[in-house]
Amino acid sequence: MTDSAAENDNDVPVAGDAVASVDGEVREKLIRMRSSIDNIDAALVHMLAERFKCTQAVGRLKAENHVPPADPGREVKQVARLRELAEESHLDPEFAEKFLNFIVAEVIHHHERIGRGGEPWPSAPGGD
Ligand SMILES: C=C(O[C@@H]1C=C(C(=O)O)C=C[C@H]1O)C(=O)O
């Protein structure tokens, strides 16, 4: 055992304590940068929550009117648009497409559940 709780016998920072071994000025910088990352992550969660509120309303409308859960034509247009936006913003367009597909796949699951008369996900407020 070393004298630092943040390191193991190989002087490798222990998971969760990576900053503890970093020198003061660098640590301060990292903490400030991480505080912005935390704010951005919070904004992402809030934006996703709003997006899912919209898509759940779409899911109910579709279920009431016998419209299928997925709309591949709409998705093709969304992917093309987001890839363009990603390129303009210097974000990897492949990543932007994967991220959108990941979200849309979840939305379609929600729509399928709503179509069967259930809640969008098992522990949704008002669900099981
Ligand atoms: C929300 C809709 O349903 C699905 C989900 C989409 C999305 O999350 O953006 C897009 C198309 C559909 O496959 C929709 O048809 O607009």
From TrEMBL:
<dbReference type="InterPro" id="IPR036263">
    <property type="entry name" value="Chorismate_II_sf"/>
</dbReference>
<keyword id="KW-0413">Isomerase</keyword>
<dbReference type="InterPro" id="IPR002701">
    <property type="entry name" value="CM_II_prokaryot"/>
</dbReference>
<dbReference type="InterPro" id="IPR010951">
    <property type="entry name" value="CM_bact"/>
</dbReference>
<dbReference type="Pfam" id="PF01817">
    <property type="entry name" value="CM_2"/>
</dbReference>
<dbReference type="InterPro" id="IPR051331">
    <property type="entry name" value="Chorismate_mutase-related"/>
</dbReference>
<dbReference type="GO" id="GO:0046417">
    <property type="term" value="P:chorismate metabolic process"/>
</dbReference>
<protein>
    <submittedName>
        <fullName>Chorismate mutase</fullName>
        <ecNumber>5.4.99.5</ecNumber>
    </submittedName>
</protein>
<dbReference type="GO" id="GO:0004106">
    <property type="term" value="F:chorismate mutase activity"/>
</dbReference>
<dbReference type="InterPro" id="IPR036979">
    <property type="entry name" value="CM_dom_sf"/>
</dbReference>
<dbReference type="GO" id="GO:0009697">
    <property type="term" value="P:salicylic acid biosynthetic process"/>
</dbReference>
<feature type="domain" description="Chorismate mutase">
    <location>
        <begin position="24"/>
        <end position="115"/>
    </location>
</feature>
